[in-house]
Amino acid sequence: MKITIILCMISLSVYASRSWAQQESAWALSANPVSISYVPKDSAMEAGLSYLIHQAALPASDQPDQTQTYRAYVSGNRKLDLLWLAGGINWSQSLLEGRKWNLLSQPDYLITAGDSLGEPQRIEKYRIYGQAAYVLSPKIKVGIDGDYTATSNEDHSSYHIYHGMAHLIRISGGIVYEQVRRRFGASIHYTHRTEELTYDTDSKDKLYTFPLGYWLPMQELSGSFLFRSQGKRLGVSLQAETRKEHWSLFHDLSYETQQLADNPNNSGNLRGWEERLHQICYQGRFTRTNKSWTHIWSPTARFNQTTANRILQRNPTTSSSAIWTTFATYRLARQRMLSTQLSYEATKNDTSGGKASTWQMTVGWNRLENDFYIYPFTVKQYTGLFHGEIAFFRQIRLPKENKLSIRPSVYIVSGYGTEIKWEKETQKDENGSAEIKLEQNMQKVNEDFIARTATRLGIGTEMEYRHPIHSALSAGFRLKGSLEQTTSPQSTLGGGGNFSIVIWL
User: Fold this and answer.
1) pTM (2 decimals)?
2) Residues 385/414, Cβ–Cβ less than 8 Å
3) Element spanning 435, H or E
């Protein structure tokens, strides 16, 4: 369930806000760090401050009711003969309010507050990243990249129930073998994450963790005021590209495995859990150019299987420092998900008269087949998602070398689907409360499904202004705005804006 929502909303976000750039290289789809050498960018540095506010038209698992974000960043890239370099540092602080979104939209966290979902949360994030590619020989390029992210998550209500901190380290390496008309690549990446959450023991009954969407009270996991978890993710991918004069074909095949678990050495942990993911994904891109027109077809297929197991532990001695051992495990949840997507983009560029303008049209269709078991229920979902966008990009040269770029757009996202659920078996605990908790969880699953099948119609605009200060320095701003109407399950309006002050070197 968790992965389904995230994938679905990635599709939505692409069409609600597009990059200033036109079509990037197909290698931008890949996790291979050598891709930096195939995405054309001028050597430059950019620094900015931004403020975002957004009121959701459909507050659900995919987005909070309201979002406010402050962000500061510095990024840059440089080409040095046979070496490409890129990197930067980001800081952001977000205040989020909503009741349901916490369940699935925070991939950095396993834990959130159950009874205080309607209360605001504050999330602060720091990220440092870098990437490099080098020409090892006329036919071989190698690359590495890495980033470190620290995220703070806390209850921002007057209760201050919990405070959490997550650390994520990611490293990857890649190689590409080049021929005249072909390129072949391979890459590997590893991610390690740790999380620590502290809370008042009196508030433990208000905290929940969500392995595969299962609503599991924290009081069943930890007997102390401290909870730790850790995760590991390993992935490999292969790339192949064929290039001709008027067309190109790109393939990317990847496999990833991930394990998330609570800290097994936590002496207060009577009942723990672990979650394992296996995922295989194919992405393709066929590009054809015809004079000023560019056509892009992009098929994608992704299959993953995730399992969550309950772990029962015991301490063989009375010593508080002894390591607890596992004496039983049982299947808590299981999910199999197949996602297929096909999108088409047509772009017409016009550079006549010294003016740069571009028409863009994108349409696509995505199908999700979701089969998951959450004790004691089995649920099958079949969802179709259609998306489309029409946009116009125009760059205007103003007096005194000033530049203004504007991109208005109209987009629609519409979903439909069928949900089937049944109860495999019924089992109650001594107090008869287990079945009630599971029923509450199933209601939340149904709300998520309705959110995915809603229809959204929106308009948006992006604007960028640059003012040259001298030959190597420019300053300006970026402005984004959107207005969105949702027709299901009820007609509501939403929207927001993002304002950034930017310096280019």
Assistant:
1) 0.80
2) yes
3) helix 434-452
